[in-house]
Amino acid sequence: MKKLTIILFFLLISFSQNTFASNCDINLEADGMMQYSVKNIEIDSSCSSVVINLKNTGTLDVSLAGHNIVISKKSDFNYLTSIVNPSYGIETGYLPEDSKVIYKTKFLGPNETLALNVDPKKFTKGEEYTFWCSFLGHWGVMNGNFSVK
Ligand SMILES: [Cu+2]
User: Fold this and answer.
1) For 27-55, what is each residue's pLDDT tens digit?
2) N or C: which terminus of the chain has fewer CB atoms within 10 Å of its end residue's CB?
3) Ligand 1 midpoint to CA 68 (Å)
4) Ligand 1 centre from 16 Cα, in Å?
5) In this structure, is residue 60 part of a structural domain?
């Protein structure tokens, strides 16, 4: 009986860890049709950090159709898209340093991946955020809702 209790205890522990991980570990794909695989990202404020794993599943070279992820307030989206400029380069996501950018990554080419570490404490519950791709011509369709619960 004691053995069974111990086994059940470890099953419970591993189950709760799996449940926890799914909230703190998000897989996001960006494809050749300028689509993200996920349109809504809700992170859990109980995660000490959240990892967003981004993969470009498209086939076009990064200079023709790179994909990345930028996270900002929805209310800053129009301003930030207006300052996108390729002269800033692939590594910067065509964006300068700006306090309205909460997170941004470089552009990925075909089959490239990256892991973005996100601190839930940088976000306010109830505020509307958006994640989007800052490649020219992409953010009109490549965007989704981002929130913290
Ligand atoms: Cu893109």
Assistant:
1) 999 999 999 999 999 999 999 999 999 99
2) N
3) 6
4) 35
5) yes
**Domain interval for residue 100:** 25-148
Ligand 1 being an ion, which residues bring their Cβ within 5 A of it? Answer: 67, 133, 135, 138, 142
CA 59 to centroid of ligand 1, rounded, Å: 12
SS3 115: strand
How many domains does the chain fold into? Answer: 1
Q: What is the pTM of this model?
A: 0.84
In a domain? residue 12: no
pLDDT in tens, 55-87: 999 999 999 999 999 999 999 999 999 999 999
Burial environment of residue 41 by CB neighbours within 10 A (0 to 12, 13 to 18, 19 or more): buried
